[in-house]
Design goal:
CATH architecture: 3-Layer(aba) Sandwich
Number of helices: 4
Distance between the termini: 20 Å
Low-confidence stretches: none
Strand order of the largest sheet: 6-3-2-1-7-10-11-12
Radius of gyration: 16 Å
Number of strands: 12
Oligomer: single chain
CATH topology: Rossmann fold
Strand content: 15-25%
Length: about 190
Amino acid sequence: MIKKTVRKDYLQRRMDIPEEDLQQQTALMAFNFKKLSFPPVKFLMSYSPLLARREFDVSVCEDMLKQQNPSMQTAWPRIEEHSSEMDASLVQRGGLFVKNRFNVLEPISGHIIEPEMLDVIFVPLVAFDEKGYRIGYGKGYYDRYLARCRHDIIRVGFSFFEAVRGIEDINQFDVPLNFCITPYRNYEF
């Protein structure tokens, strides 16, 4: 299958999950995430999930990592308004946020963390394949950003569905995940 077809299919499948199933699957994914072992994490890049699109609420996993790494700092992406670039902006307690043109919350201000400083990045996705390649929303922000990160950064995705067999139109710019957490298993790539 090609990305466009998988994206459309899985976005609809995610919207069709009944609310009580969504809550149960979210709890299972948090439980599965807790099974992972990470080296010390100084900087995490996470994101504000689009709950209206039924994205997994990664804040639970942020909190788990923070318990294991009390001095960890969290950044969220901030899209450059007139380019196709993205930065990691530290989230500050009591900080202000604004919705960008994609309706995603991002910090208005905050210290920019250089990509090579990040230890772990939570990567939003719509679907993923058995090799760890993800399908996002189609704009390429994360793949461009991941190309700027250290080679050993830990890339984690979260999906309510198991891996698709394969994505036909993967290209040299696509960056695979290290882990994808689902309600029923953890994938390691």
